[in-house]
Amino acid sequence: MDFRILGPVEVEGPGGRLRVRGAKTTALLAALLSEPNRVVSVERLLELVWGDDPNGGTANTVHVSVSRLRRMLTAEEPDRQLRIVTHSTGYSLRVEPGELDLEIFRRRVQEGRAATTEGNVEQAKGAFEAALRTWRGPALSTVQRPFAISLAAALNDERLDAQEWLFEARLALGEAADLIAEIRNLLTANPLRERLYGLLMLALYRSGRQAEALEAFREAREVLVSELGIEPGSDLQMLHQQILTRDPTLTSGSSSGAAAATHLPRQLPADVPRFVGRESELTRLESLLARQAVNSMGIMVIAGAAGMGKTALAVHWAHRVRERFPDGELFVDFRGYTSDAPMAPTEVLARFLRALGIPPPQVPVDLDEQAALYRSLLSGKRVLIVLDNVSSVDQVRPLLPGTPDCLVVVTSRNDLRGLSVMHDAHSLVLDALTSKEAIGLLSRMVGEQRVGDEPEAAGSVTGLCGRLPLALRIVAANISARPWLRLTSAAAELAEGNPLRQLEIPGDPELAVGTAFEHSYARLDPASQRLFGMLGRIPGPDFSSEAVAVLVDQPHEHAVRGLERLAVAHLIEPSAPGRYRFHDLLRHYAVERVALDELSGDDAVEAALDRLLDWYLQTAYRATGVLNRHAQRIFQLEPPKSALPPLEFPGYEQALAWCERERANLVAAVRCAADSGRNTIAWQLPAALWYFFFFRRHLTDWLTTHELGLAAAQRQGDRYAEAWMRNGLGSALRELRRYDEAIENCRKARGISGDIGDRRGESANLHNLGEAYHRVGWLSEALECCQQALDIRREVGDRWGEAADLMLLGQVSRLLGRRDDALGYCRSALTLWREVGLRLGEAITLNSIGEICRADERFDEAIEYYREALAIRRAVGDRWGEGETLDNLGHALSRAGRPAEAGDSWRQALAIFTEQRHPRAATVGAQLQELEDPEAP
Question: Which end of the chain has fewer beta carbons closer than 10 Å to its terminal beta carbon, N or C?
Fold first, then answer.
């Protein structure tokens, strides 16, 4: 079946031309043919076909009209697959290659342009003539809808371009005299086409009619000045000067000036269909272009990892700004990251020079000569130059024009910072799409209804794709090919094992995320490849340069250089000063490389992982020792396994900052140690970190690491380690209000400690058991446990533990109504805390004394104690404790008749508990509401 829009809209089947009845049906057919094989939504069809109809249209109107059109096409091909396919959001018209005249026209034009570039002028002429024969009149002439009029204008411009390229080919073949009348006729209908005037001038001059050629220039100038108020462009003026001086190159078949006047390169690929998002990046590109006029900036580098959508963004934006570059666009894919050899600058320059009108025999062979001629041709012009998939700065430098009026857009997986240093290039590094953009792209490709029906599954799909545009497009294509597939099932497929296995198009190995990564990896030197594979073994979401130095057992400077090489190639990305991370899918690829390169069983790699995990343990041990130098050390470190020493911390703030910065990695390190059978580290690292987790209230991490540590201790048969892991686990469960489990673990820990004679362990177990009893209101049991723990602490000389027990005895005694005892215990605890120098313990005890004073209605004293505790908690970074004390301070201020101050205190507490998603936020919020509106329910 043949579909035609280059002229009246027609369809011809095996039985002859089909009769399409009605203006609306014809317009509907044209709308579907304007986007063949793509889904056109019902809303879009209503807008295109019925948009300005006073009677309007509805979705049902579209369905009825589509059904009528489908019946007509099906009747002509009863044994074929349906031509019009119904989708969840709209319809698509299935058109096979060679069935649509527009597709044939464009293919023939492309063949003609390629032949021209290769210097085969005769073949180019034939291709352009074949292209123009597909036209039967003005495009879409039987459809008078606004969309058709707009599309027809664009298509008619394409027809004019093809006609001009045909004239150029015929000029090159010596047909100048025969062309004069044809060019004049085309100029009569299109009097503002400078390119046609240039062709006419050249044809007249080559026909021996110099005076008429000069007169043609005067006619062109008169029309342009009177109609547009502008002078002829530099190309036409240069040709005029060459004709005046009888430049001998004008009679040789072509010349740089004449060719440039008649060659307007339009090499941009088609715009990306269904482009979504990147609004902030597009805005930045626009701002950089606006600055070009002021700062003469003419180079933009769009960099990023494989599959990030660099080419798509560059091409899409280039189409948006192409009108600002009236002298044309040049485009080349350098193939910097494919299985083919990258293109050399000499090859690219030769192509560009031919596209700018230099005949193949006149293209220089020497790179410097090519570049010089290229710069000469671009002088004074505004040309948009897109250099895609560049792998090195050396490929770009010869292609930089010598004029500030041109713009060069470069895409690369490397950052090409040399262009910034030497040529003031501006860089835009692409990251993954935002969640909203990723959902938008998925919706555009698989249909808004499918995404709307399963929003959570859609979010899972985009998340498992790492919001990487290439991955999303591949997944969306695979989902669209299976209309029965639910997004929930697609997400489950991606979640099974390595998602890279799902991110490929069957039968097209080059269109796969893994292949894109492979091409980047292949460009690395062997040392960088091995480092990349080893980084795949690092647990955690990111890694520091110090950790990598330990991993590779090399000086820190060596590790930094290796990481920078990978970052320049965008195989890893900086996440903070001195820190790096993988994109999620690149991490999967790095893990895959470990297996492909047979590194997984490599003794050297396993030794590297041993060093790294030990380094995390050694450094965490030192950091938490700075946070609380009196915290009980339940094991002694072995000598470091790396020649590089663990980090040392000059002060409290530095140690705390390191723990927070590495927290996710430390948790991952515990899991890695447990999963790989490194049981000793799997329980010692949680033991080293418990105080940090308690102090900063990272309860989930506390629980997770101690569960892993407990399992490791049991696998190892180490009862001492098991008791300490149960003790820490019980404390975490207590803070999570899972009191039954907390009490069970503390009891078991106490039993083990008693059996093996670990008195320090037993006292810690008794303290935590007493704390759990205290929380559930078993105050007599809590008091007994605390007293037993205190006796053991004094026996073994554990002053830090003694202070903790005294503090807890004070809290329990207060609840039992023994306020004098409570105050005595707390004051004794406060003295000990100050002796051992633990400011957090001091703050907690001051808060407890404030509670005792408040219970006795000594509100002014309570306020002073709370404020003293609050200052310490803020100084040591105890964010949760700060909220607790602010809440208590609010109560004291309220009871003291100072409601405004109470409200301010509670508002601060509410902000902290809300930030930490703590259930206490609801209670504080209710207190605030009651304070501000006592009559409110």
Answer: C
State the maximum Cα–Cα separation within the chain, in Å, rounded to a whole number.
120
Q: Is residue 370 within 8 Å of residue 419, measured between CB atoms?
A: no
CA distance 599 to 80: 53
Alpha carbon distance 891, 16 (integer Å): 90
- Looking at residue 266, the DSSP 8-state letter turns out to be B
Answer CATH for 1-170 from 1.10.10.10, 3.30.465.10, 3.40.109.10, 3.40.190.10: 1.10.10.10
- In angstroms, the Cα distances linking 802 to 240, 489, 643, 799 are 100, 57, 39, 5
Phi/psi at 412 (5° precision): -160, 155
Number of H helices, E strands in the chain: 42, 16
pLDDT in tens, 675-704: 999 999 999 999 999 999 988 889 999 999
> How many whole angstroms separate alpha carbon 752 and alpha carbon 765?
10
Intrachain domains 174-264 and 279-429 with the same fold:
no
How many residues in total does the chain contain? Answer: 937
Q: Any residues with CB less than 8 A from the CB of 878 and at least 6 apart, and which?
A: 695, 696, 840, 843, 872
CATH of domain 844-932: 1.25.40.10
Q: Give the span between the Cα atoms of 492 and 457, in whole angstroms.
A: 9
- Residue 697 contacts residue 691 (beta carbons within 8 Å): no
What does the pLDDT look like over 721-771, one tens digit per residue?
999 999 999 999 998 989 999 999 999 999 999 999 999 999 999 999 999
Nearest to 687 by CA among 650, 740, 726: 726
Tokens of 273: 């269909």
Side chain identity at residue 41, one-letter code = S
DSSP string, 77-125: -TTSPPSEEE-SSEEEE---TT-BHHHHHHHHHHHHHHHHHTT-HHHHH
CATH number of this structure's domain 279-429: 3.40.50.300
CATH fold, domain 174-264, is 1.25.40
**Domain boundary assignment for the chain:** 1-170, 174-264, 279-429, 435-518, 844-932
Span 881-903, average pLDDT: 93
> How far is Cα 868 from Cα 885, in angstroms, rounded to an integer?
10
